[in-house]
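Bit of a strange request maybe. I'm writing a small parser for C-alpha cell strings and I need a real example to test against, not something I typed by hand. Could someone generate the C-alpha cells for this chain?
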Amino acid sequence: MYASPPSMFATPAVSVVLSVHNDAPFLAAAIESILAQSVRDFEFLIVDDGATDGSGAIIDRYAAADSRIRAFHQPNRGLIFSLNRMIAEARAPLIARMDGDDVALPERFAAQMRFLSAHTDHGVLGTGVVGIDVHGAVRRDWSVAYPTDDAAFRAALPGGALICHPSVMMRRDLVLAVGGYRAAYRHSEDYDLWLRLSERTRITSLPERLLHYRGSPDQVSRRHGLEQRYGAAVALAAHRHRADGRPDPTQGLERLPPLGDLDALFGTPGTARGVRATLIEGSLYDGDGLAGPAHRALLDYLRETPRHRRTPGLWRAAGRMIRSGHPLAAGRLALALARR
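Reply from user aminoacidic:
Good idea to test on real output. This should exercise your parser:
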C-alpha cells in the first residue's frame, strides 16, 4: 500500500477523477497505478457509482490507507453526473481523468504537468496509449495514433481519432467555464466537451504511451455505438452552429431529440440530413447497427442522397450485415443501392 506523507498538501497540484461502476477485477491495479505516480502532489477522487460487485469496498480499503483518496458513494447516476460531481469537488487547478480498468504508467502525471506548465495556451493534454486485453496482455490487433499538435487535432475534429479520454489532464477552470460534461450527450460526452473546449484553448496529446488502455466486450463504443455516433454527429452540428455565432440549441437539454426533430431544434433546414450522413458514414463497420436502429436512417439517406455524393463503402456494408446475421436488411440495402 502507498501511504501518504504525514503533512498533506493543502491545495494539491492535480485532482484525479475516477468514476467506478463494477470494475472490481481491475480496480486495484488502476488505483495502485495512480498511487505509484512519480508525482505525489495530488488528490484522488473516486466515486462508487452504484457498483454491485464489491468495488465500493475496494475503494474504501484504499481510502483508509491513503489520505489523498477521497471516496464518494452514490446510487448509479452515470458517468456524466459522477465526473461533474468530482470536478465540482476538486481543489486542484488540473484535472486528470482515469478509468477503473486502465493502468497509468508512473511518469504519466509528471510528463503532462511539465508540458502544461511550459505551454500555458494548451488546456487539454492526452497521452499515447498501449492497448491491453482483459488479461493485461498487450493487444497486437489494436493501435491508434492520436494527434500530437493542436493543428492536427483540429483537422481530426470532424471524425478522426482525437484523444484518449482516460489519459487526459485538463485545466479545471476551462472545464467549468464551458459547463463541464453535458447530460444530453450520453456516451459522447467527451467528444462534445472537446469541441467546446477547442473553441477556447489548444488541445493535443503527448506521443509517449503513458496509459495502458483496456479493451473489453463491455465497452461503451460496442454496447452503445449507434447512440454514441448520433450524439457525436449532433455535437459537431452544434459546434458549427456556435462557430457561426449562433446559440447552441442543445444547451440545457437532458437528452437529444430524435433525428426527425433536428431541423426544428436548430432552426436550419438540412441539419437532420447532415447528421444522418455523418451517422451513416461512421456506422459502415457496424453491421448490427446498420441492420437495426440505423436501418431506417440508412434507407432515408440513400433516398435523399445522389449517387455521386454518397459515402463510399455501402456495398461492403451490406456484406457486413450478412456476416452479422442480417440477410434481410442486407437485401433491402442492396435493392436500394441498385435502384438509385
